[in-house]
Amino acid sequence: MVGFILPSGHLPEKKLAFCGHDSTMCFANAGENPNVTTLKLAELPFVDLLWISENSVIAVGHECAPTLFSDASGSWALVQNLDQPKKSDGAAVQQSARAVFQNKVDVGQDARTGTKMETKHQNCINCIFNYKGSGDKVTDFTTSGVDGNVIFWNVKSFEQQFSGLKIK
Predict the structure, then answer these.
(1) What is the pLDDT of residues 52-65, one digit of tens each?
(2) CA 80, CA 112: separation in Å to the nearest integer?
(3) How far apart are CA 67 and CA 48, in angstroms?
(4) Which domain does 95 fall in, by range?
């Protein structure tokens, strides 16, 4: 496995995380019980990462959404994709059906011609930076992507958005 990313932001003492070209995330702990945890992911590869606390990392990359990883009692795991599409209601479904019909009438095609992703970024995220917070506790961060967008994120809002999510 080849790592191609260096950690950004605060690096906890005796801990290291990096991404691999083969969609792996590796976490190394050089403390009293040294170990390396390698997670083989089904997602596309990550490009950059940010330590937001002593036991939490947010990785960004080709999936176009920030992803939270956490160390719960010595075992690193993927916790949550942090840019989930909002639940659609009936009005949105009707609008979608109307748009499909309108497209069929105007263009003569059943499928939509444009492709808009349901994530805030529309292309690979290549950068993540600490925006607010001290070295060991990030409260806000930014991401920038190939799409030209810079998005500001608040860590506490994720705990409100996803029930049961606690970022330590």
Answers:
(1) 888 899 999 999 99
(2) 29
(3) 11
(4) 85-118
Give 4-30 pLDDT, tens digit per residue. Answer: 445 455 567 788 888 888 999 999 888
- E-strand spans in 31-115? 35-40, 46-53, 56-61, 67-72, 75-81
Structure token digits, residue 66 = 């920030």
Count of domains observed in the chain: 2
Do 68 and 79 form a contact (C-beta atoms < 8 A)? Answer: yes
The residue that leads in pLDDT, 93 or 74, is 74
Q: pLDDT at position 3, please?
A: 47
What are the residues whose beta carbons fall under 8 Å from the beta carbon of 59, sequence distance 6 or more?
19, 25, 46, 48, 49, 66, 67, 69, 128
Shared-domain flag, residues 108 and 149: no
Higher-confidence residue of 121 and 161: namely 121
Is residue 136, in this structure, part of any structural domain at all?
A: yes
Nearest CA-CA partner of 23 in 6, 38, 36, 9? 38
Q: Are 36 and 59 contained in the same domain?
A: yes
Instruction: Kindly state whether residue 9 falls inside one of the protein's structural domains.
Output: no
Residue 7 lies in a domain: no
Query: What span, in angstroms and rounded, lies between the C-alpha atoms of 15 and 38?
Result: 14
